[in-house]
Amino acid sequence: MSFSRRRFLQATTVAPLVSAFPTLSKAEVSIGSATLTTISDGYLTLPGSFLFAPMPQDDLAPILAEYGVSSETLLPECNLTLYRDGKNTVLFDVGSGADFMPSAGTVLDSLDAAGLAPEDITHVVFTHAHPDHIWGLLDEFDEPVFYNATYMMGRAEWDYWWNPETVSDIGEARAAFAVGAKRRMAAIEDSVQLFDADQEILPGIASVATPGHTPGHMSFEIRQGNSAAMIAGDAIGNHHVAFRKPSWLSGSDQNAELAATTRQMLFDRLTHEDLSLVGFHLPNGGIGRAVADGDGYRFIEG
Questions:
Q1: Which long-range contacts does 263-266 make (Cβ < 8 Å, 24+ apart)?
Q2: How far apart are alpha carbons 34 and 126 in whole angstroms?
Q3: Which pTM value belongs to this model?
Q4: Mean pLDDT of all residues belonging to the chain
Q5: CA-CA distance, 218 to 281, in Å (whole number)?
Q6: If we measure between CA atoms, which residue out of 288, 267, 286, 292 comes closest to residue 276?
Q7: Among 199, 224, 272, 283, which has the minimal tally of Cβ within 10 Å of its Cβ?
Q8: Which residue has the higher pLDDT, 247 or 24?
Q9: Other CB atoms within 10 Å distance of the CB of residue 257
Q10: Confidence of residue 92 (pLDDT cuts 50, 70, 90)
C-alpha cells in the first residue's frame, strides 16, 4: 500500500480511537554480569492496513480478536534497548526525535528517569534506518544528541540509505524516509563505524543479518557465558500476527517475502537456542521469549 509520513501524521490525528493506549513500561533481563534494559521512546499510531493489507482478511480477523487488536488502528510501543556491562553503555537505535509523531520521541526523558544523560552513552548501534529508529539522532541544532557516542551501523543498511538512487527507487510513499535518514547519516558520516553480518562489533555483541524489513536490517545476539538474548529490532514487528502466522506478508516490510523468511529463521533460532527476545514494537517493554504453539508461536513476556 502507499504509506507516507503524511499518512502517519494523519493517522495520529484522525484515526478512530481504540479502547486503550499502550502501557509504556520498561523491562530488564540479566545477561551474565551485564543487563539489558528497554526504555520507552513513546508509541506510534498507525492505520491497521499498514500491516494487514496483504494478509488474508478472513483468517486475520479471529487472530486480531484473540489478541484484542484493532484492525483499524495500531498503537505499537517503541522500545529502545540499553546494554550495560560495566564498561560500555550501548543504546540500540535512537528513536523518532521531535519530527515524526507527537506520541514518540521520549528517549531523553526515559534515560533521565533511568539516571542517565546523553553523554553517558558510549555507543549507538542501529538495527536499521527507518524514522522511528534514526530520526532521533539530531537535536534542534542538527547536532548528534549522543555526542560522546561511537555510532555503528551495518554496512548494507548504510549503503542502501546512502545511495542517491534510493530516494527515487523506494517509491513516493517512503521517499521522505530516505531523505530523513540520509540527512541524519550525513551528520555522522566521518565517524560512523560500519560492520558486516556475523561480526562481534563489541565484546559480547554479535551482528545477525535479518534483512527484509529493510535491505540491511540487523539484529544482535548478546551473550555472556550461557546467557544470551536476541535484539530483533523490527524483524519481528508485533506480538500477534508475526508470531501466529510468521509466513504471512506484512505491509510494513520493504521486501515482504524476504522478511517472512527472516522471521521464520529468527523463530527457529530463538526457540532452539532458548534465547531471550527483545523486540522494538513488542508490548510491555518488549522483553520475553518466543515459544512454539501449533503451527506458529506465542510471545511470553518477561
A1: 263/212, 263/235, 263/236, 265/210, 266/210, 266/219, 266/230, 266/232, 266/235, 266/236
A2: 20
A3: 0.92
A4: 92
A5: 15
A6: 288
A7: 272
A8: 247
A9: 11
A10: very high
Mean pLDDT across the stretch 171-193? 96
What is the number of structural domains in the chain?
1
Task: State pLDDT tens for residues 241-296.
Answer: 999 999 999 999 999 999 999 999 999 999 999 999 999 999 999 999 999 999 99
Grid cell in block for residue 238: 508485533
- Model confidence at 16, pLDDT cuts 50, 70, 90, reads very low
pLDDT of the residue at 7: 38
The CATH number that applies at residue 147 is: 3.60.15.10
| Neighbouring residues of 19: CB distance < 8 A, sequence distance ≥ 6 | 68, 70
Tell me which amino acid residue 13 is: T
Q: Which residue has the cell 558520516?
A: 189
State the residue range of the domain holding 234. Answer: 5-301
